[in-house]
Specification:
Elements lengths: L4 E2 L16 E3 L5 H9 L6 E3 L13 E7 L8 H11 E13 L8 H9 L6 E4 L3 H4 L6 E8 L1
Parallel strand pairs: 1-4, 2-3, 4-5
Antiparallel strand pairs: 5-7, 6-7
Length: about 150
């Protein structure tokens, strides 16, 4: 069986997905992205519209949950983390790319780590300060939280 990864969550609505391969719930449905991935020798990505805090997938149906700059904007991040955790098979990995930006928006790494630890036994914070990641020097907090079972 091929690995299944939940790549990102945003939008609203959708039905449970049961096939193998990468999944990307998104606010828009762009099937051309899947074709573009396949033509580049990468697995096709299926675009589904779904709610970021409640992705339309079955429990224990994903090997990896990767969420980028979403957690901080949700009304109940703790509740969303609980649902995302239930999506993971054992062993499973949760990857959260977040930050606390100069504008004041975002979530501090310590707060994010503590939220993850309410649902998972481990959460490591990796600072993402390399200017090559952002195209410029940064002065705000940008990081990756890695939580493996």
């Amino acid at each position: 069986m091929r690995d299944r990864q939940l790549v990102r969550a945003a939008g609203g609505g959708g039905a449970p997905h049961q096939g193998p391969g990468p999944l990307r719930p998104d606010g828009c449905s762009r099937p051309c992205q899947g074709r573009r991935c396949a033509s580049a020798g990468l697995p096709a990505v299926e675009f589904l519209q779904g709610d970021a805090s409640e992705p339309p997938y079955l429990p224990a149906s994903c090997d990896v949950v990767l969420v980028r700059h979403v957690l901080w904007a949700l009304p109940d991040p703790d509740d969303a983390l609980g649902r995302w955790t239930r999506l993971l098979r054992t062993p499973g990995t949760m990857l959260l790319v977040e930050g606390l930006w100069g504008t004041g928006a975002g979530i501090a790494s310590g707060t994010c780590r503590e939220l993850v630890l309410r649902h998972r036994s481990r959460a490591d914070v990796v600072p993402l300060t390399d200017p090559s990641l952002w195209g410029k020097e940064i002065s705000d907090e940008r990081y990756l939280v890695i939580s493996r079972s």
